[in-house]
Amino acid sequence: MATSRPRAAGRKRHAPPKATRLARELAGGGAKAKATPLDAFQLARKKWLAGERIDIGALAKELGVGRATLFRWVGSRELLIGEIIWSFQVPFMEKARAEVRGRGAKGADYVAGVSERLMEGIRSFAPLRRFIENDPEYALRVLTSKSSTVQSRNVELVRENLMDQVERGHLTPPLPIDTLAYVIVRIGEAFVYADVISGREPAIDQAAAAILVLLGGKPR
Predict the structure, then answer these.
(1) What range does the domain containing 167 cover?
(2) Of 66, 115, 149, 197, which is least surrounded by CB within 10 A?
(3) Does a structural domain hold residue 122?
(4) pTM value?
(5) Domain count of the fold of the chain
C-alpha cells in the first residue's frame, strides 16, 4: 500500500481547480447516465485530435444533452481541453521515467532527464503543436495558467519525481520541494513554448541544463 509523503515546508502550493464531474469519472467514480461525462470526453478528444474546434454547444447537441448539463460535467471548455491534453501527457511522463531509469540516472540527472524527455514528447506531439499554432494565446492559457489543471498536475508530477529521489538518498534539494517543482515546471514552460511567449526558438536542451544546474548537478 502506498504511503503518503510528507509535504515539504516552504512555498505554499497552488490549490488545483475543484474537480469537475468529468475529472471524477476519469478517476473511476460517478454515476452513469444515458450520455455521460466520459462520452463527452471521448467525443471531444476525437474532435481535438482531428484538429476540430471544441464547441460546447455543438458537443452538447451531438451528445443529446443540454448545454448547461455539459458545462456541469466538464466545468468549462478550457478545463475539458486540459483533460484531453492531460490524457496524452501522462503516458509521456511514464515513458520518460522508464527511459531515464533504464540508463541508471539518479538525483539531479534523473529529474532533469525525465523533464527533458517529457518536454520532447510534448513539443513533438503534432496535435498539440497544431492546437498552439491555431490559437497561441488560448493554448497558453490552457497549458500554463495556474487556473488550469495542466500546470497544477505537472507541478505534482515533478514533485513526485523530486520526492522519489530525495527518499532514495540521491538528491539533497537546494530549495523546498514545492518551490522546486513549481520552478522546474515554469522553466519548462518558458523554453518549450518560447516561440509563443517571446518569439524565440524552443530550446529543450537548455531547459534541461537549467534544471540540472538548479538541482546541483553538473552540466553535460
Answers:
(1) 88-220
(2) 66
(3) yes
(4) 0.80
(5) 2
Shared domain check, 106 and 37: no
At 215 the three-state DSSP class reads coil
In whole angstroms, what separates CA 157 from the centre of its chain?
A: 8
For residues 173 and 121, state if they share a domain: yes
Determine, yes or no, domain membership for 186.
yes
> What are the cell numbers at 74?
466538464
CA distance 18 to 129: 28
Element (H, E) at 101: helix 77-102
If pLDDT is split at 50, 70 and 90, which confidence band does 79 have? very high
Whole-angstrom Cα distance, residue 127 to residue 46?
11
| Contact call for residues 120 and 204 (beta carbons, < 8 A) | yes
135 and 46, same structural domain?
Answer: no
Instruction: Dump pLDDT digits (tens) for 98-149.
Output: 999 989 999 999 999 999 999 999 989 999 999 999 999 999 999 998 877 9
Distance CA(96)–CA(156), nearest Å, equals 16
Grid coordinates belonging to 160: 513526485
